[in-house]
Amino acid sequence: MNIQTHQSIDRDLCGDPVSLSEGRSLVRMATTPAMAADSSGLVHGGFVFGMADYAAMLAVNHPNVVLGSAESSFLKPVKAGDLLEAEASVKQESGRKRTVEVTVRRGETAVMTGTFLCFVLDKHVLEQ
């Protein structure tokens, strides 16, 4: 895999890339007790969203890709210990803009879906 973006990301928090191809990615993450929001082990949605965002960035796979906006739906709860997979695919390109659809699943069950609007910048966002 030739990963060109988010190379310093903490994969314990955002998942491990499993496959990467033009406009597509698959990321896998084992949720942990540290991600739990309460004593029942409910994983905070921010971790699931972070995984989906990472999958979207990998689907674009450009060193200067950034997230502009996202629309997401949380469909099922996630519990610490669940193994998740996020599948992302670029659905539309227009200039610098990429629209990426992501589905996060636990087994065959979708737990989150989202549409991520990403932008490929000429230089790193902190150099603007």
Features:
128 residues, alpha+beta, Thiol Ester Dehydrase, Chain A, 2 helices
The amount of helix comes to 10-25%
Q: Tell me the total number of β-strands.
A: 6
Strand percent estimate: 35-45%
Poorly predicted residue ranges: none
How would you name the oligomeric state of the polypeptide chains in this document?
Answer: single chain
Strand order of the largest sheet: 1-2-4-5-6-3
Q: By helix and strand content, what is the structural category?
A: alpha+beta
Name of the top-level CATH class: Alpha Beta
Q: What would you give as the CATH superfamily?
A: Hotdog Thioesterase
Average pLDDT figure: 96
Radius of gyration: 14 Å
Please characterize this protein's 3D structure.
There is one protein chain. The chain has two helices and six strands; from the N terminus they run αββαββββ. By secondary structure, the protein is of the alpha+beta class. The chain has a single domain (11-127), classed as Hotdog Thioesterase (Thiol Ester Dehydrase, Chain A, Roll). A six-stranded antiparallel sheet has the order 1-2-4-5-6-3. The longest helix has 16 residues, at 45-60. The protein is globular. The termini are far apart. The mean pLDDT is 96.
Question: What is shown here, in short?
Answer:
By secondary structure, the protein is α+β, with helices and mostly antiparallel strands. The chain has a single domain (11-127), classed as Thiol Ester Dehydrase, Chain A. The chain contains two helices and six strands, in the order αββαββββ.
